[in-house]
Amino acid sequence: MKTIQIMCVMVVACCTALSSMGAPTSVRCKYCGTEAQSARALLSSPCPKHPAGFAKGKHALFEGQTREVYTCVYCGQTAKSMRTLVSSPCPKHPAGFAKGRHSAYEGTEKSTYTCKYCGQTASSMRALVSSRCPKHPDGFAKGWHTPAR
Looking at the domain assignment, is residue 41 inside a domain? Predict the structure, then answer.
């Protein structure tokens, strides 16, 4: 009994220390931007904006950092919140023009972005994703440049 109480105190102290150090206190869904206090809580509920359709799949964790501005990985559009970004259709979505929603870039902010298929670089994500990639998996120039994380 004493061992369990001591371990619980240690876990609480550890969690308190992490939150005071600036550790994230919430997690987000990469499809709809919904926030939850834990991954378990987020991943256990259906997502209204899941790519398979309304509530046909569960939320998925956004693995990127919290930012002041979020950028779409397909078209380079920016928004001040992830929820705002992922709420509208993307003109350069891989499924076709406006057939899917914007997707927030999960990598780190960089001074130069590199295409993960051909290695081309650009100073902004919007500049990189604005042209077609000669080494795209779908075929020569059949897809857009895609930024590496």
Answer: yes
Structure tokens at 11: 């876990």
Tokens at 99, concatenated: 């057939």
Does residue 51 fall inside a structural domain? yes
d(CA 123, CA 45): 38
Domain assignment of residue 147, yes or no: no
Number of domains in the chain: 1
Structural domain boundaries enclosing 39 = 26-63
Which amino acid belongs to residue 92?
K
- Tokens 């919140």 locate to 81
- Spatial contact of 44 and 55, defined as CB atoms under 8 Å apart: no
Contact 113, 124 (CB under 8 A): yes
List the beta strands (DSSP E) in the chain. Answer: 27-28, 35-36, 70-71, 78-79, 113-114, 121-122
Distance between CA atoms of residues 6 and 71, nearest Å: 45
Judge if pTM exceeds 0.85: no
Q: 27-82 pLDDT, tens per residue?
A: 999 999 899 999 998 998 899 988 888 888 999 999 888 888 999 999 999 999 98
Please give the pLDDT value at position 15: 42
Q: Is residue 44 part of a domain?
A: yes
- Euclidean distance between CA atoms 34 and 51, whole angstroms: 15
